Amino acid sequence: MTWSARLAELGVELPPVVAPIGSYVPAIKAGSLVYTAGQLPVVNGEVIATGKVGAEVSPEEAQQLAKLAALNALAAVHDLVGVDAVVRVVKVVGYVASAEGFTGQPVVLNGASDFLGEVFGDAGAHVRSAVGVSELPRGVPVEVELVVEVA
């Protein structure tokens, strides 16, 4: 089964690539790796949530936002090389805008990791960094970037 068929089986449609809000490109290929820029929880060009996790945003809501950000990162991969070229997910880096004292960043990023595992199965197993930060672009609670190996 191809990854695009797996996405269809899951009822997941890859969205259009989110336009960069700075001087960078959404994804770049170097050798057999594709690196994405940090992706935000954006739908149709609009941020769907703002605030800090542990204050205005619950960890459960933030998990869904991390999943959406990962979907947007996957869309950037697809736009560059096609999702079916993915051999495996190598690394996920996630940033969580955290209220003071919030230490559940790994739980929040499980939203992205679990989604990638659902799509790619064993090829979705990856290393990860979950980083708490004071602010993120456009006031979003979560930002996710991917490194994937491609054929």
TrEMBL record:
What sections of the protein cross the membrane? none
Q: Which residues form the Endoribonuclease L-PSP/chorismate mutase-like domain?
A: 5-130
Q: What organism is the protein native to? A: Actinokineospora terrae
Q: What is this protein called?
A: Enamine deaminase RidA, house cleaning of reactive enamine intermediates, YjgF/YER057c/UK114 family
- State the CDD domains in the record: YjgF_YER057c_UK114_like_1
Cited Pfam families = YjgF_endoribonc
